[in-house]
Amino acid sequence: MLIPKKIRTYCPSCRRHTEHSVSQLKKRSARKLSWGQRQFARVTAGYGSQPRSEQKKFSKTTKKVVLLLRCK
Q: Is residue 10 within 8 Å of 16, Cβ to Cβ?
């Protein structure tokens, strides 16, 4: 997907339409000691299957792109 480098859109801090630089947000590494990660490790430890059942329906092939706009 082609994303423009600059977009002219509304800026809430300037309260007017200004030029924004556009960048695509990338997924960061997960926190290893977060509560969800610790819970998942507890549930999956030992013998047995995954904590949730396998997905029966088809899943989406692409995720929505999150854009980061910076006012100039």
A: yes
| Distances from the Cα of 56 to the Cα of 18, 59, 64, angstroms | 46, 9, 22
Going from N- to C-terminal start, the domains of the chain cover 1-26+66-72
pLDDT in tens, 34-65: 999 999 999 889 888 777 888 888 888 888 89
Q: For residues 51, 53, 57 and 58, what is the CA-based torsion angle, rounded to 10 degrees?
A: 40
DSSP 33: T
Say how far apart CA 18 and CA 9 lie, in whole Å.
Answer: 6
Q: What is the reported pTM? A: 0.61
Burial classification of residue 55, based on how many CB atoms lie within 10 Å of its CB (0-12 exposed, 13-18 middle, 19 or more buried):
exposed
